[in-house]
Fold these 4 entries.
Entry 1:
Amino acid sequence: MHEVGIISAMLKTLERVMEEEGLTHVEKVVLEVGELSGVVPHYMEECFPAAIYKTPFEDLKMEIIPGMIQCLDCEAEFPVRNEELKCPECGSDKIKPAGGTGFIIKEIYGS
């Protein structure tokens, strides 16, 4: 479960932003998590409360960005389907990620 390491790195980034912006408290952090990012949102939600214990951070909200795939043969784009990674247009299995691969801190609400 690498989400613990991700949360740790994210908190260090948030601490740096707090210092730069003169914040003493963060009420909410909004993340954009791509379906193809390798991050499991459920694990993030489970780990976050323990990671922020006795810190100036409170709430975590995640927006899930759908994973998109592009066919390398016909260039069609389509959403990820867990059961099959083949192009629905031409049937090719030559594909690459086309969206939903990111993980970013979108918003920080602090005082």
Entry 2:
Amino acid sequence: MERLQEKLGYRFRDRTLLTTALTHPSFGSDHHVAHYQRLEFLGDAVLELVVSQYLYQSLPDMPEGTLTRMRAHAVREEALFQAARRLELGRLVRLSVGEERTGGREKPSILADVAEAVFAAVYLDGGLEAARRAILASLGELLDMRSLSDCLDEKSRLQEAMQKRGAMPRYVFVSCEGPAHAPTFRYQVWEGEAMLGEGEGASKQLAQQAAAKNALQKLGADHCG
């Protein structure tokens, strides 16, 4: 428990909150004590708020749709499982004998739930700022822009790459060829007076995506921004 508090960067005043956050429902049922499910419910909301604020402030020009995908990527079960393993929650969670035997300490679903419950416990004990610090410390490199860019499409990745140098992509329509029922659109993407890439597709959106991909390849940023 001491090591966990060090990793969270927070020391509890009410240790029972942390104990509850580390108690699986199977253990709670067997021993008639509180378990983490209600804390998990609250922790999910606190986590989304903290990550939303972090992305909103870190990426002031990123559109809503992209921010939503990045948030979902950051708070998905796999990400929380990695955070839980970093916090070593598996060795601290209280499980029933049956859940222990079936490998509960390494189940991603359980550890992700415990992580959310722990974040809620910090929030209840120390407030939103304490929870924010604990969450950002726990997620660590999972909130790195290179990691978050894994969830982005080519246009979003190109926009992120160009924003780092103070620019924004501009898409220019070139042509539309072929029959009405099967057209082929061609677009170029520009930065100021420089043409970065071009591409074609069966729709305007697909053509723009192809142009962005071509630009990313030329910029050497086609993998994770």
Entry 3:
Amino acid sequence: MSKYAPLTGYLSSSGMEYIPITFSQVEEVIGDKLPRSAFEYRPWWSNNPSNHVNAEAWLSAGYKASEVDMSERKLVFRKALAGELAVKRNKQIGKDQGASPYSRIYGALKGTVSIAPGVDLTLPTGEKWNAQQ
């Protein structure tokens, strides 16, 4: 049984659309301390069930983590809209059925690199290469 199973039960039985909660309240629900990464890294609260057993806990209850405020140590569990969780599960099924391992990381860095206006990437860098050696 997962450490986060009590969170699944708590969310499932709430019947609420939005559940504002602090990190310490999550600890009370699970009856254990959250890992340090939950307090330091925003991705710990992502809604990716294939990477995080904690995310599987709220997703299986039909909720998504949102409005995560790392400095205030709080978030909102929001009832997932129809179809939001089905898309995630279908992607996971595709992965399990032999999808390319590169399909999971394709585009993972999209948006992380930007090129300053006016920079021409086709111009030489000033580095000289001697291909005749």
Entry 4:
Amino acid sequence: MRKIRRKERDGKKILIITNHSYMLYQFRRELIQTLMKEHEVILCMPFVGHEEDFQNMGIRCIRVDVDRRGINPKTDLILFHTYKKLLKTEEPDMVITYSIKPNIYAGYACRLMGIPYCVNVQGLGTAFQKEPTATIVSMMYKAALKNAKTVFFENADNAAEFVRRGVIPASKEKVLKGAGVNLDVYRQHPYPDEEEGIHFLFLGRIMKEKGVDELFAAASRLKKKYGDRIIFDLVGFFEDEYKETVERLDADGVIKFHGFQTNPKPFYVNSHCVILPSYHEGMSNVLLEAAATGRALIASDIPGGGADTVEEGVNGFLCRKKDAEDLERCVERFMRLSMRQRELMGKKGRRKMEREFDKAAVVGETVRAIGG
């Protein structure tokens, strides 16, 4: 195994590799800014938004496209060799990776080349939801993470799954509170009036694993019962399979579809409760942002979702995943509360974010674990 030669330099040269520049900017910008105080930071990613913002921060950005969802041995092998070539050219002192393909292929390249690296597992995703895919991906991860300095997780259950499967030893895991939430950016806002109805907001990708089938079923029944007193706002972009359903429900008045929005804050502010009945999460940024804004939550009782962000009956309600009737029950419980009780739930959620999910604390933990 050949270690590459590194030049003498002040601070470290840190290469961050991800599969999505938009997500990196939205949720890791503060971490990058902190690292830049002491080190040279370079970003490697597809250019799908915010690359100019990074460049304006004084960061050199290298474009490497990644097929985020496809499983094609040929293109994945090309990606692995692209990462190897990049590492040889850049000679970084530390590599930090985000998302499954950079974690595996860039991680394995770092292992082979003797480059220190840290890996971020931002949820187990669909790959771990069924066999034999879960076993195959576990084996690939095990090979890639063998020499990783630290493996970051966004919830304890995901970390325990990696240890149980023998992917990493427990000594390498570091569980963070997700990416945390910037409490200055997402400030607590006054509870909105209810004269025009109670607004329940779903914000995110409109796809099966976010629990939208259950949401649509519950919304259809509740709309018939409560009429104009209840409003279901949807913000995000839909998978192609949901185009017809979303357009029909919007036309029928069951939901109000607002499309994808670059700034979600006004929708949090105008909502009374945020709903996320997803099947699996790393750590839901939507729930963190909504709670920081001072809004109650209804979320499925899963790691990284409601199980980590909702205290039952305190700042929201927990529903069983894949259970439309239980989701409907939670919405009705919220509807039966007084305005004062609903407002108090939001305030308690804000306090929880301040105690447990402050981004400044998460960034500090991350920097210390990286060794920066």
